[in-house]
Design a protein that fits this description.
The protein has helices at residues 2-47, 93-105, 138-144, 160-173, 188-194; strands at 49-57, 62-66, 75-80, 83-84, 112-115, 127-133, 136-137, 149-150. The chain is α+β, with helices and mostly antiparallel strands. It folds into 2 domains: 1-47; 49-194, OB fold (Dihydrolipoamide Acetyltransferase, E2P), CATH 2.40.50. The N and C termini lie far apart (94 Å).
Length: 196
């Protein structure tokens, strides 16, 4: 009986103890890495957001804002990421898209939060951003109300799934441009190409 106990203790010391130490080290390292990654993700989310005041809603996908950069009174053009709203000449949807975005923004004195993705400017110099107001993503709200299409633009894909779900819901519900009695026949991009 003593030899059996001794054998089990010896096996434990020689075989299991080193493996448990290795596993404990791996778990500790993994925990440290997860903590480090979560701290970095938190810092990135804070660094890639700014609060601005909206000066004017230009269209269903563009704003003029105050507060970007070093000059707080300089007006900058912002294009909402992930959406393509009807052109203002694309009646009646263009004007309805602009009015929808105006309603979502509400009081111009209350600041909105711009959240940036990988690429912060487009080819014509507009700032690209996700716009938040009262913890609601306005890009998503415009799509969900049926006044913009979801258009993913590489490399900015942070909220693509969320925006695509909003479009599916608007389409199912027949909202705005998806209204079966008065559907929008040309996408905004097609309309712009034909009416240059």
């Amino acid at each position: 009986m003593k030899s059996k106990i001794w054998f089990t203790a010896a096996v434990y010391r020689k075989f299991w103890a080193p493996r448990l130490v290795i596993w404990a080290r791996k778990i500790t390292i993994l925990g440290c890495l997860l903590l480090l990654i979560s701290c970095q993700a938190h810092n990135q989310s804070v660094d890639n957001q700014i609060q601005v005041k909206v000066a004017r809603v230009v269209s269903g996908q563009s704003l003029e804002v105050l507060g970007i950069g070093e000059q707080p009174t300089l007006i900058s053009r912002v294009r909402l990421l992930g959406i393509d709203a009807p052109d203002l000449r694309q009646s009646p949807w263009g004007d309805e898209a602009r009015q929808t975005l105006e309603q979502l923004i509400g009081d111009l004195e209350t600041p909105v939060t711009l959240e940036f993705d990988v690429e912060t400017k487009d080819t014509i110099g507009r700032t690209l951003a996700y716009v938040w107001r009262d913890e609601k993503l306005l890009n998503e709200q415009v799509i969900e109300q049926g006044y913009a299409l979801f258009v993913g633009r590489s490399p900015n894909h942070k909220y693509d799934q969320r925006l695509e779900r909003a479009q599916q819901w608007a389409r199912l519900m027949g909202k705005g441009i998806w209204n079966p009695e008065q559907p929008m026949r040309l996408t905004p991009a097609e309309f712009r190409r034909r009416n240059l």
